[in-house]
Amino acid sequence: MADKIEVRPNGPLRVYGPFNLVDGDGKSFKLPAGEFVTLCRCGASKNKPFCDSSHRTTIKFEANTKAS
User: Fold this and answer.
1) SS (H, E, C) 55-67
2) pTM of the full predicted structure?
3) pLDDT, tens digit, for every residue of 21-68?
4) d(CA 17, CA 3)
5) Domain boundaries in the chain?
6) Using CA atoms, how far apart are residues 63 and 46, in angstroms rounded to an integer?
7) What are the backbone dihedrals phi and psi of residue 7, each rounded to the nearest 5 degrees, phi first?
8) 48 CA to centre of own chain
9) Where are the beta strands (DSSP E) in the chain?
10) pLDDT digits (tens, 9 = 90+) for 1-10
11) What SS3 state is found at 17?
């Protein structure tokens, strides 16, 4: 289980290890304790599931901050 997940304002999810992540192709990524990855939230990354900053440089992503 991830140690902490941060929702970055108008950006990706920052997930701190330790955890194992399996992408849509079944490729597994193991992250040790004390390290983090950023996961795409906007859908525009060319390196999914990881963020490549397309939210900032390509599409100017703005998160929906309204509560349901």
Assistant:
1) HHHCCCCCCCCCC
2) 0.78
3) 998 899 999 999 999 999 999 888 999 999 998 888 888 888 876 555
4) 6
5) 4-47
6) 19
7) -90, 110
8) 9
9) 4-7, 13-16, 19-22, 28-31, 36-39
10) 668 999 988 8
11) coil
